[in-house]
Amino acid sequence: MLSLAKVLACPPRLLIVDELSLGLAPIVVDDVFRTLREVRDQGTALLVVEQHVGRALALADEAVLLSKGRVTHRGPSSELGDLADQMLIGPR
């Protein structure tokens, strides 16, 4: 959170975050994503690499899914939610 706060003192046009929630307690992850949503809503573009796919998709307008280093799908995040679930846990 401290590294995010330092960057947000002067909001950038683009913020790139890579596994920002890694190793954090769930309540802190909630705060991180709340902050990212606020940053996005204030006009900063976000590029998010995240293990919590559902949270990232909820934050995103557009999404790119990678599998084994290759782009497998891209498009509106609303269209990729079910597909991301299938990639993570297999077909239902």
For the termini, the CA-CA separation is 36 Å
How many distinct beta strands? 4
Q: Please give the CATH architecture.
A: 3-Layer(aba) Sandwich
Count of structural domains:
1
Strand content: 25-35%
Description:
- The structure is a single chain.
- The chain has helices at residues 2-8, 26-41, 53-59, 77-89; strands spanning 14-18, 45-49, 62-67, 70-76.
- With 92 residues, the chain is α+β, with helices and mostly antiparallel strands.
- It has a single domain (13-89), classed as Rossmann fold.
- The mean pLDDT is 82.
Set out the fold topology.
Elements: H1 2-8, E1 14-18, H2 26-41, E2 45-49, H3 53-59, E3 62-67, E4 70-76, H4 77-89
Parallel strand pairs: 1-2
Antiparallel strand pairs: 3-4
Helix pairs in contact: 3-4
